[in-house]
Amino acid sequence: MLRMRSRLAWGAAAAVAVLMTAAMPAQAGRLEDIKARGYVRIGVSLGGEPIGFRDDRNQPVGYDVDVARQLAARLGVPVRFSDVSGDARISMLRANQLDLVVANVSITPQRARIVDFSIPYNAAGLRVLTQKKARIRTLADLNGKRVVVGRGTTASAFLKKAAPRAEFIYADSFSPDGVLLLLQRRADAGIEDSSLLDYMASKYDQFETLPEMYGNTPIGIAMAKGDPALLAFVNGFVADYIRSGAYAANYRKWWGSKTAPPALTPGAR
User: Fold this and answer.
1) Does the pLDDT value for residue 19 go beyond 70?
2) Contact partners, residue 250, CB within 8 Å, separation at least 6
3) Which of 145, 93, 136, 86 is nearest to 114 (CA)?
4) pLDDT tens-digit map of 140-181
5) Mean pLDDT of all residues in the chain?
6) N or C: which end of the chain has fewer CB within 10 A?
7) Which of the two residues, 130 and 202, has the higher pLDDT score?
8) Pick from 181, 31, 46, 19: which is nearest to 100 by CA?
């Protein structure tokens, strides 16, 4: 008899649980969360021009900031920015403190294991910046020239193979140390990340860049794993951003017209 009552009680409890589960709405995805909240939380990196920085009114501006604003407009809600960099970009996503990160995040296999990435909305690689008067047109022309490189960087390793007879001028930090050497004309050229050198070429008339970009690292919009609806939405935004010409226009806005934007294909990873 006691066993029978126990079975009846368990059965009743199970039935109540089923009814309660049926009455509860399914857990909303992040798109629905954003719409319900009324704004989107986007992490941007404001550590350097032209990717992201603050203007003279202390407002976020830069290439990534423009992308984030366009994405928020596509979502139909205002954006609230958080200044993030380094590991914080990923950890804040995973802690649900941000909805999206548009902060110059390179798409790598290691990162792709812990966050989802959109198709690339930008790309970077190594670029060579030269003094116009140095008349450097190819990598081979760097042999015998004074070239600034960051100490212990991939750029240094690349140049040792590409122009082994170049005169290496090592800088502990390319920006500002290497930049200063170039501005003072104490070096004929420099090799570093294209996003920095393209910007310098647009900002200072004494410089120009070689057209080639060596290597191509895709940069994507990051989000927490496990929300296919949000990923599809962001991928659609990026594809339209590239296809419509907004990508080329935004790139030239921040890097100038001297250098063509890295080639991107809508829908390609």
Assistant:
1) no
2) 63, 66, 67
3) 93
4) 999 999 999 988 777 888 999 999 999 999 988 787 788 899
5) 86
6) N
7) 130
8) 31
Q: Tell me if residue 247 falls in helix, strand or coil.
A: helix
Buried b (16+ CB within 10 A) or exposed e, 67-104: bbbbbbeebeeebebbebeeebbbebbeeeebbbbbbb
Q: What is the CA radius of gyration of the chain?
A: 25
Domains with residue ranges and CATH for the chain: 30-123+218-255 (3.40.190.10), 125-215 (3.40.190.10)
Q: Is the pLDDT of residue 202 over 70?
A: yes
Task: Please name the amino acid found at residue 233.
Answer: F
Q: Tell me the CB-side half-sphere exposure of residue 230, using CA atoms within 13 A.
A: 23
More confident residue, 216 or 71: 71
- Tally the C-alpha atoms within 13 A of residue 112's C-alpha that lie toward its C-beta: 13
Distance CA 53, CA 7 (A): 66
Q: Cβ distance 202 to 259 under 8 Å? A: yes
CA dihedral 145, 202, 210, 156 (to 10 degrees): 60
How far, in Å, CA of 128 to CA of 198, rounded?
Answer: 9
Is pLDDT of 134 > 50? Answer: yes
The count of residues in the chain is 269
* Closest to 38 (Cα-Cα) out of 92, 84, 99, 89: 99
